[in-house]
Design brief:
By secondary structure, the chain is an all-alpha fold. It has one domain. The protein is built from 4 helices and no strands. The longest helix has 38 residues.
Length: 177
Amino acid sequence: MRAIVRAIDRLSSCFGALAALVVVVLVVLMLYDVLMRYVFNAPTTWGNDLNTFLMGGSFLLSIAYALATDSHVRVDLLYSAHTRDRIKYVDLIGFVIVVLPTVAWITWGLWGHFQEALRTGERTGSGGWNPVVWPFKAVMFFGFAIFTLQIAAEVIKRIYAIAGSPIVQDQADEHAV
């Protein structure tokens, strides 16, 4: 199980790195779009749609990474250093009863939305570019699928931690576990 959890963590890290690269591309394209619009008075037809897709894609592809690295926003009142040992029980219950079923259900639905968009050639219906939306819907599906896997890995991590044999997340300590 430890190897599976580590593989899922690595997959989440790869998609987090991909999301970071998408942000870099997004910044370059936004600068180009602004330059074309305000300096050369020649706005792009694709800027708004593509920038929206890239921003959404970077967010969706980084959700699992944020969970894997414990870098998402939390309520400090509940997740202080004093409650960290006890909160793993709350995390486990929340992941199993609420988060995992909900995210898995959304992932299942996104697969259907992707298939329908691909089958029909659905388009945005906006601007002069009017691109097809199936690539973005594919990114939505993959982002949530990886998020679902990461939640499952977090459930396993909490079970191991409660059992007294935590799965070490630090790369330097990987051989010690």
